[in-house]
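Same chain as my last thread, 33 residues:
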Amino acid sequence: MIGGLPHWRPPAWIDPDRVPVLHHRITLNNRRE
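reply #2:
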């Protein structure tokens, strides 16, 4: 996780607009519950 962080952006998971795929996945996971 930390080893592959430099490639990714830190505010990526904080900015849903920058990662619509991640946001969609999290929303689906939350809605599945």
